[in-house]
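User: My instructor asked us to take a sequence, write out its structure as tokens, and then describe one feature of it. I'm not sure where to start. Here is the sequence I was given:
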Amino acid sequence: MSIHPTAIVDKAAELDPSVDVGPYAVIEGPVRLAANVTVYPHAYLCGWTRIGQNCEIHMGAVVGHLPQDRAFTGERSHCEVGPNTVIREYATVHRGTKPESKTVVGSDCLLGVASHVAHNCVVGDHVNMLNSATLGGYVSVGPRAFISGNVFIHQFVRVGELVMISGGARLACDVPPFLLAHGRNQVGGINRVGLVRAEMPGDQIREIHQAYKTLYRSGKPLSHSIAQLAETLVTPAGRRMVEFLTAERKRPLVRTGGAPGPSPGSPV
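Assistant: Let's start with the prediction itself. The structure tokens for your sequence are:
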């Protein structure tokens, strides 16, 4: 174990012998760090936080601090970060609001400089959040989603698997899996490049493309389109899209189509 003499490590913390803690870092409370975690100078970890093996917590990052929620009353809550995740400079991950609730960041994620994961968010595996991307409370992000820089996502929004969100987007609506999102609550087709890079079979990509046209090009009511997709989508990716579309939600689905651009859309 390598702990710089200027670092402050609480006696209640549990650190694997292979952990590396840099100068002026602070580890406060019952934090647990698994094997080969690197904590860079001036990082701050606190509370009932669990960091998986091989993670990197860079300079000035804050993980496990109190939620920005007026409903928080000080009880114990949690923050979990999966293995191989990198949290870059000045990123923040807050713990849950309700007693024993938690914020979860999956494995193999990248949280860019000054990005923010608010209380009770659930971020799937292999998610990239670039610089200054912000998730409000209770947001969920599916596996392998890509959130570009300066994106703001409203609380309770769901972002599906392999969604690609372009820089500067503002989202207050759920984004179904495998789509491209941009602007203000707009979608502009399927994330074809992402699906190919993920080695999704061609028949599944074709079905997702047809599902997109049914949702956003048919002109039919949303409920009718979802019911139609529930009956017709048969591939694994298609069924995962149906599962997303038919799940309980607190935000509406994005409804506007078109190529990426700056014009705002109107969610229904």
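For the description part of your assignment, you could build on this observation: Residues 2-198 form a domain with the UDP N-Acetylglucosamine Acyltransferase; domain 1 fold (CATH 2.160.10.10). Try explaining in your own words what that tells you about the chain.
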